[in-house]
Automatic annotation (TrEMBL):
This is Type II homeodomain-leucine zipper protein. GO terms for biological process: regulation of DNA-templated transcription. InterPro entries: HD, HD-ZIP_Homeobox_LZ_Class_II, Homeodomain-like_sf, Leu_zip_homeo. One of its GO terms (cellular component) is nucleus. The gene is ophh-61B. The keyword DNA-binding applies. It comes from Phillyrea latifolia.
Length: 106
């Protein structure tokens, strides 16, 4: 094979350009596939979320699970679920404070 250095150089450059192009195509294909997978995943999660929402509205016991609707208890900075908040306030705050007050007065 008797090629001049210049020719070899050109040939290599061309070849590199071609491989680069091929690589770009492959990358593009790969990204497209990734995107499709993500979209699919997203759709699946949305569906799951809807099912959970439906479940939540149809089943009252769901409310008793912690972390459904989180609300801060303002007085003690503790996180409590809505159904328990009222109960929590009654027991945790009012009773002890009233007993304390009585002790102080006597």
């Amino acid at each position: 094979l008797n090629l001049r250095p210049r020719q070899v150089e050109v040939w290599f450059q061309n070849r590199r350009a071609r491989t680069k192009l091929k690589q770009t195509e492959v990358d593009c294909e790969y990204l497209k596939r990734c995107c499709e997978t993500l979209t699919e995943e997203n759709r699946r999660l949305q569906k799951e979320l809807q099912e959970l929402r439906a479940l939540k509205t149809s089943q009252p016991f769901y409310m008793q699970l912690p972390a459904t609707t989180l609300t801060m208890c303002p007085s003690c900075e503790r996180v409590a679920t809505t159904p328990f908040l009222f109960w929590h306030h009654q027991h945790h705050h009012h009773n002890p404070s009233t007993t304390h007050h009585h002790h102080h007065h006597h």
